[in-house]
Amino acid sequence: MDLGGRTVVVTGGTRGVGAGIARAFARAGADVVVCARRPPEVPVEGVGFASVDLRDPPAVRDFFDALPRLDVLVNNAGGSPYLPLAESDAERHARVIELNLIAPLTASLAAHRHLRRAKGAVVMIGSVSGTRPSPGTAAYGAAKAGLENLARSMAVEWAPDVRVNTLVVGMVRTERSHLHYGDEDAVAAVARTVPLGRLAEPYDVGEAAVFLASDAAAYISGASLLVHGGGERPAFLDAATANKES
Protein backbone atom coordinates (compact mmCIF):
# COMPACT_ATOMS: atom_id res chain seq x y z
CA MET A 1 0.00 0.00 0.00
CA ASP A 2 1.53 3.28 -1.12
CA LEU A 3 1.31 6.10 1.44
CA GLY A 4 3.94 8.23 -0.23
CA GLY A 5 3.57 11.93 0.51
CA ARG A 6 1.54 11.39 3.67
CA THR A 7 2.68 12.38 7.14
CA VAL A 8 2.04 9.97 9.99
CA VAL A 9 2.45 10.46 13.74
CA VAL A 10 2.72 7.37 15.95
CA THR A 11 2.50 8.08 19.67
CA GLY A 12 4.72 5.96 21.85
CA GLY A 13 6.37 4.55 18.74
CA THR A 14 9.86 4.06 20.14
CA ARG A 15 9.76 0.31 20.86
CA GLY A 16 7.62 -2.80 20.72
CA VAL A 17 4.29 -2.50 18.93
CA GLY A 18 4.75 1.22 18.32
CA ALA A 19 8.10 0.73 16.61
CA GLY A 20 6.55 -2.03 14.48
CA ILE A 21 3.78 0.34 13.43
CA ALA A 22 6.28 3.09 12.59
CA ARG A 23 8.34 0.68 10.46
CA ALA A 24 5.25 -0.46 8.58
CA PHE A 25 4.27 3.10 7.67
CA ALA A 26 7.82 3.92 6.66
CA ARG A 27 7.88 0.86 4.38
CA ALA A 28 4.66 2.15 2.82
CA GLY A 29 6.45 5.37 1.90
CA ALA A 30 5.02 7.70 4.53
CA ASP A 31 6.92 10.40 6.39
CA VAL A 32 6.75 9.08 9.96
CA VAL A 33 7.33 10.83 13.28
CA VAL A 34 7.12 9.01 16.60
CA CYS A 35 6.62 10.93 19.82
CA ALA A 36 7.26 9.93 23.41
CA ARG A 37 8.91 11.34 26.50
CA ARG A 38 12.23 9.63 25.84
CA PRO A 39 14.02 8.88 22.55
CA PRO A 40 14.28 5.27 21.37
CA GLU A 41 17.23 3.21 22.54
CA VAL A 42 17.45 1.89 18.99
CA PRO A 43 16.26 4.48 16.44
CA VAL A 44 13.84 3.22 13.81
CA GLU A 45 15.43 3.70 10.40
CA GLY A 46 13.77 6.39 8.34
CA VAL A 47 11.56 7.56 11.23
CA GLY A 48 11.80 10.90 13.03
CA PHE A 49 11.43 11.47 16.76
CA ALA A 50 9.90 14.25 18.83
CA SER A 51 10.02 14.47 22.62
CA VAL A 52 6.46 14.98 23.86
CA ASP A 53 4.85 14.16 27.19
CA LEU A 54 1.45 12.93 26.01
CA ARG A 55 -0.02 13.60 29.45
CA ASP A 56 0.78 17.31 29.12
CA PRO A 57 -2.04 18.82 26.99
CA PRO A 58 -0.29 22.15 26.26
CA ALA A 59 2.83 20.30 25.10
CA VAL A 60 0.72 18.02 22.91
CA ARG A 61 -1.06 20.99 21.34
CA ASP A 62 2.25 22.76 20.70
CA PHE A 63 3.65 19.66 18.99
CA PHE A 64 0.72 19.24 16.60
CA ASP A 65 0.40 22.97 15.94
CA ALA A 66 4.02 23.00 14.76
CA LEU A 67 3.48 20.28 12.16
CA PRO A 68 3.15 21.53 8.58
CA ARG A 69 0.65 18.77 7.81
CA LEU A 70 -0.72 15.51 9.18
CA ASP A 71 -2.58 12.74 7.38
CA VAL A 72 -2.64 9.91 9.91
CA LEU A 73 -2.53 9.75 13.71
CA VAL A 74 -1.88 6.39 15.36
CA ASN A 75 -2.67 6.53 19.08
CA ASN A 76 -0.41 3.74 20.26
CA ALA A 77 1.09 5.04 23.53
CA GLY A 78 -0.16 3.11 26.53
CA GLY A 79 0.38 0.11 28.73
CA SER A 80 0.16 -0.87 32.36
CA PRO A 81 2.17 -2.71 34.99
CA TYR A 82 0.62 -5.67 36.77
CA LEU A 83 -1.51 -3.85 39.32
CA PRO A 84 -4.29 -5.70 41.19
CA LEU A 85 -7.04 -3.30 42.14
CA ALA A 86 -6.88 -3.60 45.93
CA GLU A 87 -3.08 -3.44 46.02
CA SER A 88 -2.84 0.16 44.91
CA ASP A 89 -4.66 3.44 45.37
CA ALA A 90 -7.13 5.13 43.07
CA GLU A 91 -4.60 7.77 42.04
CA ARG A 92 -2.25 5.19 40.55
CA HIS A 93 -5.07 3.45 38.66
CA ALA A 94 -6.18 6.87 37.41
CA ARG A 95 -2.72 7.45 35.91
CA VAL A 96 -3.14 4.24 33.90
CA ILE A 97 -6.48 5.49 32.59
CA GLU A 98 -4.93 8.89 31.83
CA LEU A 99 -2.23 7.36 29.64
CA ASN A 100 -4.47 4.87 27.84
CA LEU A 101 -7.63 6.94 27.35
CA ILE A 102 -7.16 10.63 28.10
CA ALA A 103 -3.85 10.92 26.22
CA PRO A 104 -5.32 9.53 22.95
CA LEU A 105 -8.24 11.94 23.30
CA THR A 106 -5.84 14.83 23.89
CA ALA A 107 -3.72 13.92 20.85
CA SER A 108 -6.75 13.42 18.62
CA LEU A 109 -8.22 16.79 19.53
CA ALA A 110 -4.88 18.51 18.97
CA ALA A 111 -4.53 16.80 15.57
CA HIS A 112 -8.10 17.36 14.40
CA ARG A 113 -7.47 20.55 12.44
CA HIS A 114 -4.74 18.90 10.37
CA LEU A 115 -6.67 15.69 9.87
CA ARG A 116 -9.84 17.43 8.76
CA ARG A 117 -7.93 19.45 6.17
CA ALA A 118 -6.15 16.32 4.87
CA LYS A 119 -9.27 14.10 4.94
CA GLY A 120 -7.14 11.92 7.17
CA ALA A 121 -7.48 9.03 9.56
CA VAL A 122 -7.05 8.13 13.21
CA VAL A 123 -6.08 4.60 14.23
CA MET A 124 -6.57 3.74 17.90
CA ILE A 125 -4.50 0.85 19.25
CA GLY A 126 -6.94 -0.96 21.47
CA SER A 127 -6.65 -4.30 23.24
CA VAL A 128 -8.56 -7.49 23.89
CA SER A 129 -8.22 -6.40 27.54
CA GLY A 130 -11.02 -3.95 26.79
CA THR A 131 -13.38 -6.70 25.65
CA ARG A 132 -12.97 -9.24 28.48
CA PRO A 133 -12.13 -9.28 32.20
CA SER A 134 -8.57 -8.10 32.82
CA PRO A 135 -7.53 -9.18 36.34
CA GLY A 136 -4.30 -7.48 37.32
CA THR A 137 -4.77 -4.75 34.73
CA ALA A 138 -8.37 -3.71 35.37
CA ALA A 139 -7.80 0.02 34.91
CA TYR A 140 -6.00 -0.67 31.63
CA GLY A 141 -8.87 -2.84 30.41
CA ALA A 142 -11.41 -0.21 31.38
CA ALA A 143 -9.43 2.45 29.53
CA LYS A 144 -9.18 0.33 26.39
CA ALA A 145 -12.91 -0.34 26.48
CA GLY A 146 -13.45 3.40 26.71
CA LEU A 147 -11.00 4.02 23.87
CA GLU A 148 -12.95 1.76 21.52
CA ASN A 149 -16.19 3.56 22.37
CA LEU A 150 -14.48 6.94 22.00
CA ALA A 151 -13.33 5.95 18.51
CA ARG A 152 -16.86 5.03 17.45
CA SER A 153 -18.26 8.34 18.70
CA MET A 154 -15.39 10.26 17.15
CA ALA A 155 -16.01 8.50 13.83
CA VAL A 156 -19.59 9.79 13.80
CA GLU A 157 -18.81 13.33 14.96
CA TRP A 158 -15.87 13.83 12.59
CA ALA A 159 -17.38 12.21 9.49
CA PRO A 160 -17.09 12.62 6.59
CA ASP A 161 -13.77 14.45 6.94
CA VAL A 162 -11.86 12.09 9.27
CA ARG A 163 -12.07 8.31 9.53
CA VAL A 164 -11.52 6.76 12.96
CA ASN A 165 -10.99 3.05 13.63
CA THR A 166 -9.61 0.77 16.33
CA LEU A 167 -7.23 -2.17 16.17
CA VAL A 168 -8.19 -4.57 18.96
CA VAL A 169 -4.84 -6.21 19.57
CA GLY A 170 -4.19 -9.50 21.30
CA MET A 171 -0.94 -10.77 22.79
CA VAL A 172 2.19 -9.51 21.02
CA ARG A 173 5.75 -10.75 21.27
CA THR A 174 8.03 -7.80 22.00
CA GLU A 175 11.30 -7.15 23.79
CA ARG A 176 9.27 -6.82 27.00
CA SER A 177 7.19 -10.00 26.70
CA HIS A 178 8.99 -11.56 29.65
CA LEU A 179 7.48 -8.94 31.96
CA HIS A 180 3.98 -10.21 31.11
CA TYR A 181 4.45 -13.92 30.41
CA GLY A 182 7.78 -15.07 31.90
CA ASP A 183 10.70 -16.92 30.31
CA GLU A 184 10.86 -18.43 26.82
CA ASP A 185 9.09 -21.62 27.91
CA ALA A 186 6.27 -19.55 29.39
CA VAL A 187 6.00 -17.41 26.23
CA ALA A 188 5.79 -20.59 24.15
CA ALA A 189 3.10 -22.01 26.44
CA VAL A 190 1.09 -18.80 26.18
CA ALA A 191 1.46 -18.86 22.39
CA ARG A 192 -0.07 -22.33 22.29
CA THR A 193 -3.31 -20.91 23.73
CA VAL A 194 -3.77 -18.79 20.60
CA PRO A 195 -5.68 -20.53 17.78
CA LEU A 196 -3.06 -19.51 15.19
CA GLY A 197 -0.38 -20.99 17.43
CA ARG A 198 1.78 -17.92 17.99
CA LEU A 199 1.82 -14.47 19.48
CA ALA A 200 1.48 -11.52 17.13
CA GLU A 201 4.63 -9.75 16.00
CA PRO A 202 4.76 -5.93 15.96
CA TYR A 203 4.85 -6.30 12.15
CA ASP A 204 1.36 -7.85 12.20
CA VAL A 205 -0.09 -4.87 14.04
CA GLY A 206 1.78 -2.42 11.83
CA GLU A 207 0.45 -3.89 8.60
CA ALA A 208 -3.12 -3.77 9.95
CA ALA A 209 -2.66 -0.12 10.95
CA VAL A 210 -1.37 0.75 7.48
CA PHE A 211 -4.44 -0.91 5.95
CA LEU A 212 -6.86 1.09 8.09
CA ALA A 213 -5.05 4.31 7.21
CA SER A 214 -4.88 3.58 3.50
CA ASP A 215 -7.27 4.23 0.63
CA ALA A 216 -8.09 0.51 0.65
CA ALA A 217 -10.09 1.23 3.82
CA ALA A 218 -11.73 4.40 2.48
CA TYR A 219 -15.23 3.21 3.46
CA ILE A 220 -14.23 1.84 6.87
CA SER A 221 -14.86 4.11 9.86
CA GLY A 222 -16.08 3.47 13.39
CA ALA A 223 -14.91 -0.14 13.06
CA SER A 224 -12.91 -2.43 15.34
CA LEU A 225 -10.51 -4.80 13.60
CA LEU A 226 -9.50 -7.82 15.68
CA VAL A 227 -5.79 -8.63 15.46
CA HIS A 228 -5.61 -11.48 17.95
CA GLY A 229 -4.82 -14.68 16.08
CA GLY A 230 -8.31 -16.09 16.52
CA GLY A 231 -8.83 -15.02 20.11
CA GLU A 232 -8.82 -17.29 23.13
CA ARG A 233 -9.98 -20.89 23.27
CA PRO A 234 -12.89 -21.07 25.76
CA ALA A 235 -11.65 -22.62 29.02
CA PHE A 236 -14.71 -24.86 29.38
CA LEU A 237 -13.70 -26.84 26.28
CA ASP A 238 -10.63 -28.17 28.07
CA ALA A 239 -12.47 -28.75 31.35
CA ALA A 240 -15.39 -30.67 29.82
CA THR A 241 -15.20 -34.44 29.40
CA ALA A 242 -17.91 -34.76 26.74
CA ASN A 243 -17.26 -34.71 23.01
CA LYS A 244 -13.53 -35.31 23.34
CA GLU A 245 -11.69 -36.58 20.29
CA SER A 246 -10.23 -40.02 20.81
Can you offer a commentary on this structure?
The chain is an alpha/beta fold and 246 residues long. Helix content is 41%, strand content 15%. The chain contains eight helices and seven strands; from the N terminus they run βαββαβαβαβαααβα. The chain has helices spanning 16-27, 57-65, 90-118, 138-157, 177-181, 184-191, 202-213, 235-239, and strands at 7-11, 31-36, 47-51, 72-75, 121-127, 163-169, 224-227. It has a seven-stranded parallel β-sheet, with helices on both faces. Strand 5 (121-127), helix 4 (138-157) and strand 6 (163-169) form a beta-alpha-beta unit. Helix 1 (16-27) crosses helix 7 (202-213), helix 2 (57-65) runs parallel beside helix 3 (90-118) and helix 3 (90-118) runs parallel beside helix 4. The N and C termini lie far apart (46 Å).
Q: What's the SSE blueprint?
A:
Elements (H helix, E strand, L loop, with lengths): L6 E5 L4 H12 L3 E6 L10 E5 L5 H9 L6 E4 L14 H29 L2 E7 L10 H20 L5 E7 L7 H5 L2 H8 L10 H12 L10 E4 L7 H5 L7
Helix pairs in contact: 1-7, 2-3, 3-4
Query: Average pLDDT value?
Result: 95
Strand order of the largest sheet: 3-2-1-4-5-6-7
Strand content: 15-25%
Q: Note the overall shape.
A: globular
- The protein's oligomeric status is single chain
Number of strands: 7
Radius of gyration: 18 Å
Low-confidence stretches: none
Largest sheet: 7 strands, parallel
Query: Structural class given helices, strands, pairing?
Result: alpha/beta
